[in-house]
Amino acid sequence: MDESEFQILDKGGVAAMEPSVSCEGAFFSRTDTSVSFGGYTSKLLEISPSESLEVMYGHRVTGIDQANGTLELREGFGNVRRIGARCILNVSGGESLKIAKMAEAAKEYSVLHFRGDYWMVGPGMSPRPRHNIYSVPKHSEYPFLDPHYIIRHDGTAEVGPTASLVSGPDKYPRSDAELRKGPSDLLSRPLMPKARLFLNREFLSLVREEWRSSASRSHMARRVKKFLPGMDEKYLTERGLSGIRHSLVDRSGFVPEAVTIVSGRSFHVLNFNSPGATGAPAYAAYVIGMMGSSGLIDPRKINTRDGGNRLWGRSLDTVFSAMGY
Ligand SMILES: Cc1cc2nc3c(=O)[nH]c(=O)nc-3n(C[C@H](O)[C@H](O)[C@H](O)COP(=O)(O)OP(=O)(O)OC[C@H]3O[C@@H](n4cnc5c(N)ncnc54)[C@H](O)[C@@H]3O)c2cc1C
Predict the structure, then answer these.
(1) What is the position in ligand 1's atom list of the atom closest to the CA of 161?
(2) 88, 92, 225, 300: most buried, per Cβ within 10 A?
(3) What is the mean pLDDT of residues 226-244?
(4) Higher-confidence residue: 68 or 237?
(5) Measured in angstroms, how far is the CA atom of residue 275 from the centroid of ligand 1?
(6) Stretch 264-276: mean pLDDT, rounded?
(7) Atom of ligand 1 nearest to the CA of 116
(8) How far is the CA of 66 from the centre of ligand 1 (A)?
(9) Is the pLDDT of residue 303 over 70?
(10) pLDDT per residue over 9-38, tens digit each?
(11) How far away, in angstroms, is 93 Cα from ligand 1 center?
(12) How far is the CA of 280 from the centre of ligand 1 (A)?
């Protein structure tokens, strides 16, 4: 970031800017923003047909045949369809690891899924912050953010998320009993990386605290009250958004950053938690660069919307040379 984009504030500086916040100091980001990810994705889908892209809903990748370059897709529980592919880019979030393993890659990794639940902040709370407020994570060795106060793109406010351990990539029902339901990724191989975490007291205490915050609004309100003293459970009017984070683990514990792997004719992106949805367009340019340098695609043949050889607002050459290609 450029120095003009941020400011370090002491206690008094925070009080002057955000009277509802209590803390010792803060990093104030002037370029912090709020994005409608749903709106963004809808727009991409809208322009896809004119870019010769076909979106297939209701299909699940269930196999990869590297030798013949085919992708096996299953429609619901029924029809199997096979699509020939010169190369495959796997960016499937919660199932990225499963799909990478279909391509004989990433065997050393396991995955744990954590559901993040938010609570809506009703209009009764006053004064309320004018900016997004993030607290410093208590368990800094784990890749989770502690609850924060965020203002969505439509002006509504929420607090969260939690990081509740769940058994699979799409486990949304809010019950701890779901851990006993199968099939569960908790028991998928390799088991050793996960077993180490489950023997760690600090990790277990974090898991307990996060489950409580998902289940109980008063627990969440108490956590937020530490940096927003005016918070009370009566202001948390209803449940807000939920999302599931998929965290890779290996023998050393949680893998901190996104992982990219080339296996035969396939390219896999795993553990894409940060730079997150906001960073995804820039990261996509970076992935195309890496696919180019590993010979999977010829980046110079990419057609972009403006008809030129441009990507992410700059020429591809500039992007790739900045990345060291
Ligand atoms: C609670 C929470 C809050 C967050 N807040 C923010 C935030 O404020 N700002 C931010 O920038 N980021 C945020 N993130 C992170 C962000 O949501 C993720 O980094 C981002 O969504 C990852 O994008 P992705 O495309 O890799 O995966 P996903 O968004 O998970 O997309 C993967 C796609 O692949 C599909 N898929 C999966 N398996 C298969 C299969 N077998 N066959 C076919 N398709 C399949 C899925 O249906 C899905 O459409 C948050 C995440 C969570 C959990």
Answers:
(1) 1
(2) 88
(3) 94
(4) 237
(5) 11
(6) 92
(7) 1
(8) 25
(9) no
(10) 999 999 999 999 999 999 999 999 898 999
(11) 5
(12) 10
Structure tokens at 271: 């553990």
Q: What is the pLDDT of residue 236?
A: 96
Q: Which of 24, 188, 34 lies closest to 101, judged by CA?
A: 188
pLDDT digits (tens, 9 = 90+) for 133-176: 999 988 888 888 889 999 999 999 999 999 899 988 888 765 44
Lowest mean pLDDT among 149-153, 251-255, 286-290: 286-290
- The structural domains of the chain, ordered by start, are 110-252 (3.30.9)
- Looking from the CA of residue 62, the nearest atom of ligand 1 is 41
Mutate to test the pocket of ligand 1, among 31, 36, 45, 92 (most ligand atoms within 8 A of CB): 92
Task: Tell me the backbone φ, ψ of residue 161, rounded to 5 degrees.
Answer: -90, 165
Q: Closest ligand 1 atom to the C-alpha of 245?
A: 53
CA distances from 226 to 19, 25, 45, 223, 297 (A): 14, 14, 41, 6, 50
Task: List, chain by chain if needed, residues with CB within 6 Å of any ligand 1 atom.
Answer: 60-61, 91-95, 99, 116, 161, 243-245, 272-273, 276-278, 280
Nearest CA to ligand 1 atom 48: 92
Is the overall model pTM greater than 0.85, yes or no? yes
Ranking 50-59, 74-83, 168-177, 293-302 by mean pLDDT, the lowest is 168-177
